Amino acid sequence: MRIDQSSSLLPEVKRGKKIRIVVDGSFLDAFEGETVAAVLLAAGVIKFRLTREHRHPRGVYCGMGVCYECLVRVDGVDNVRACMTPVVDGMNVETCREVEL
Ligand code: FES
Fold it and tell me: pTM score, two decimals?
């Protein structure tokens, strides 16, 4: 969920240009300056990858590039940290893949 409006309690909401990315074959709206993780979470996607051995779901944990729990495939490149990767118009993101670290 994104905050769409300003209020007396929040500063004015300013966003980058509206763009679209493809996530697992579906289009999602995004804004320039957001990370892949922010766009996925705003859309309600919390499972980013599966562990190799037990196929346990993983998602954002640290949110700052340290834990490597948020790995996704971006434009065919495996093991990209969603929390550290800014969205680009037309980017293709694949989630819930088994990941070998
Ligand atoms: S959430 Fe920890 S590296 Fe992305």
Answer: 0.89
